[in-house]
Please model this.
Amino acid sequence: MWLFLGSECLLFGGLISTYMLYRGRVQNGPHPSQIYDIPFTSVSSFVLLMSSLTMVLAVSSAHRKDDSKTNLWLLITGLLGATFVGGQVYEFTTFYREGLGFTTSLFSSSFYTLTGFHGVHVSVGVIMLMSLMGIIKKNKITGDKAEVVELIGLYWHFVDVVWIIIFTLVYLIPA
Amino acid sequence: MSTNELTLTPGNSLDVAKGKLVVAPTQSLGAVRRPVNTTGWREWLFTVDHKKLGIMYGCVAFVFFIVGGVEALFIRLQLALPDGRILSADKYNQMFTMHATTMVFLFAMPMAAAFANYFLPLQIGARDVAFPRLNALSFWLFLTGGLILNASWFLGGAADGGWFMYAPNSGPVFSPTNGVDFWILGLQITGIASLIGSINLIVTVLNMRAPGMTLMKMPVFTWMLLVVQFLLVFSLPVITVALVLLMFQRSYGATFFDVSQGADPLLWQHLFWIFGHPEVYVLILPAFGIISEVLPTFSRKPLFGYPFVVFSGASIGLVGFGVWAHHMFASGLGPVSVAVFSMATMAIAIPTGVKIFNWILTMWGGKIWYSAAMKFAIGLIILFTIGGLSGVTHAVAPSDTQQTDTYYIVAHFHYVLFGGTVFGLFSGFYYWWPKVFGKMLNEKLGSWNFWFMVIGMNLTFGPMHILGLQGQPRRMYVWTEARAGEGFFNLGFWNMVSSVGSFILATGVLFFIINVIKTTRNPERAPLDPWDARTLEWITTSPPKVHNFDRIPVVHHLDEFFHRKYVEDEATHTMKQVATGEELVRAEEEAADADIHLPGPSYWPLLLSIGMGILGMGVIYGTPIMVVGALVVLFSSYGWVLEPSVPDAIDFDTPSTDGHTKEITPVG
Model:
């Protein structure tokens, strides 16, 4: 998992670099400063950050062999993650209605590609969490249960860390 | 199915049918039972055995070698005479694009993967890789990607933007056919295959070495592969980003590379070459690893300076990430960037030079055995050095400004790729054929193979140095007599020499194919240790048993196999033989492990690959197809996750009978 996450660092690195190059190239449509809703995105980021906390609690429960607690914390993590994705969807549709389409400008294309890739990673993570819950319930884990939860936890924390970086570079630092 | 032994695991269910107690096999998600006892072609389709996968990689990669070679011969036919009419300009563009793409991604990388798959576990004393089903997935994804890439020939024309596919030329305006889309998808899928494979091999090397084998007791081939896997882990995602951006531009209207919309004309180039440069080290390091095994064996001397060879390999890998812009010296980077990359590129010649000296010093004072494998290894040293020398001239940015985009560059990279990578791989063929297939390739045919390839190669690529410095540009589909120059430097003459050389080269390859056919028909078996070799993979039968080692060896030395055969005589300080390879293998058989659990075959890797293929085609042909592909991928993923990697005893029909091994007691 660490090696996979290492390669993902380079993946997001490439996408972030492309965004940083193109963030000011607004041929049509709104400029970043005109469209970002920092308070809303901050709440969204906080939700994702909290999901990392609940993930740690899930891993800790798994180490203590407490299946029901593990599942509880996995569920909450998944719900928080899904809330984050929901927030992203709302944000994207709002931007779209305000004139920022995928092909509107280089800024828009890079923005949607970068945050879209991140959103897909979160969604895949939520699916993995829900599946993990189901597999634990059915007692069909192949291998060490605590280790599997820990690996999913690593992925989830990575996705969160990437978001912290994206949030800082994309939203907080003015273009 | 009757049982006389019941093993209940979470996967089984108990039932009463026809008055007999029936234990149903592991309920996997699929409707079909787990394919544990398959034989024949199904065994190959569902195998997770690294040796079978290695052979499959090798066969498919060799087929693509021929495909890429035929594409090259078309190019040389077109350029043999002035105003060639064999290929139109458009077809010529497709031909050189596909020649390079096929050779790099569908031949060289997978052939190295074939050797890695087969020999890395054996060299470290393991029974398989860390993730056998992922290993199978890598192979099937590679095959899927290769087929998608070449399907373009029949579905509207192949990609035509050069193997580096510079955007905006590869965007929808200038490359309107689907060729580039097939190229993007083929590479994305084979890229995933390589990424998964690299993670697999790193974990294998770090976790599954035999007891006593520290990192500095690993064979050099394994070390070079380890460096290559790290290169892949960090370089592949960057080309993934580039391909994704290009795909979004071509398929969904984004403007990432559209300069009229404000895009940076160099974005693609940077992204591509940050992958592309480490990629060339991915291509050469396995070959370096192979000859680092061959040279000591056929010089009857240990490798000179093992730590230097290992560390220079690692430094090539590391510095390799810092020189990408030497592919862009003529693109307007500015003098500071050009100077920095120029110096870094000169620096990276140093570790390579260290290796060359270590190989030469390995041979110095040794008792050289000029087998076919050894000839190819020595050939690599000479030819790669020539290619390296022209490479050093490219590192000097002012001279590169003349050389870039001419045939001088083509000469450079073919000397290092053909004289380097291909010769290394062929050395590996002749060296390891007896271990894999139990038969020796014919040495006399091997000699013909070698000499035709050496002479052919030098006749093909040698003149390209002259052609390039005289100004013949790359990627030009035709040349004319009027502009061909006079006397010694007449382009026409050297183009003809080059084309004739290419057919001599092809004949050399033909000798190899004849050798393989002849060897396959020959019933004579090879001895167990024909070359008096040095490393662990030779303490096995030929071919190795399915579980590789009857007993996991305990390692005390670098070149462990050598030190089990030879011990230093205290009196004369020479090496005295105390055992033969056959005796050592027989000793292992007598001390065989009682219980050996092997990972079981699975059809999920194959199914998942088919799903990815459908998903990819959906990008070109419509979203409904994408949805179908995604569903197959999702279904296969769940089936995979729910399936234990080692099959339960109950999954076997009948007890297996294999006189040499005692496998997990199956019930039947």
About this structure: The first helix of chain A runs from residue 2 to 22.
